[in-house]
Specification:
By secondary structure, the protein is mostly beta strands. It is about 5% helix and about 55% strand. The chain has 2 helices and 16 strands. The longest helix has 5 residues.
Length: about 230
């Protein structure tokens, strides 16, 4: 359990939606997914909500590099007139890291940064099969809290993988909400389904002491790769 907790980070809300297919200003402003390709490297940004002209943003940013490990994580930030500024929390080579990124926006609303130029994508998928993740069904999702005297208070999700198989790499997005449906925390977790009981999983993240009594509901979505 302790190793899984160390692999968790807070996650902003994730909502998948359709993507625009053109790069004009009107379509870009309503796009949810942007893709970039440089030689054999690809990058993908998927926003929780269609990208508006300005305002707060959140979503998932993923890099598929040809010569090093893929990185995947979540971000929150702000979309401004000439730039997109985000705080990125990501997993790479089995370690969760954090960094800030500023993308420069072009007049048509597309943006560029870190050597990539992002344009709207309808498929919202990488083209290389080695970087593809597939949805993994979950069931019997339960949320609770617990207190570790050494490290603090936690929200925890326990759930099952009814169709899991051995040797699957998995990554999951979890969330806990109060009785009104307001999200208290979202976070990511990753692991490997080796031998033994591979159908059960749990993942947790830190919460404040005053949030302990406000965690009656939980949601989770997972993906796998072999």
């Amino acid at each position: 359990m302790r190793k899984q907790l160390l692999a968790s980070v807070l996650l902003a809300p994730l909502l998948l939606s359709s993507c625009a297919t053109t790069g004009d200003k009107t379509k870009t402003a309503s796009a949810s997914c942007f893709l970039a390709t440089v030689t054999q490297d690809q990058a993908k940004i998927r926003f929780d909500q269609p990208l508006s002209s300005q305002g707060e943003v959140s979503g998932i940013l993923e890099y598929a590099f040809a010569q090093k490990d893929q990185s995947w994580g979540i971000f929150t930030g702000k979309n401004e007139k000439d730039k997109l500024s985000i705080s990125y929390q990501f997993l790479s080579e089995g370690v969760v890291s954090y960094r800030d990124i500023i993308f420069t926006k072009s007049p048509n609303g597309n943006f560029a940064g870190e050597g990539f130029r992002f344009t709207p994508s309808e498929s919202c998928r990488f083209t290389k099969s080695g970087y593809l993740w597939k949805s993994l069904a979950t069931s019997n999702v339960k949320a609770d809290t617990f207190h570790d005297p050494e490290t603090g208070y936690y929200a925890r999700l326990t759930f099952e993988f009814p169709t899991a198989e051995q040797d699957m790499k998995i990554r999951c997005i979890g969330a806990v909400s109060d009785s009104q449906g307001k999200v208290i925390a979202r976070w990511i977790n990753f692991g490997f389904l080796g031998t033994g009981n591979i159908n059960n999983w749990n993942m947790g993240t830190n919460i404040r002491p005053d949030q302990v009594d406000s965690v009656p509901q939980g949601q989770v979505s997972c993906e796998y790769s072999i």
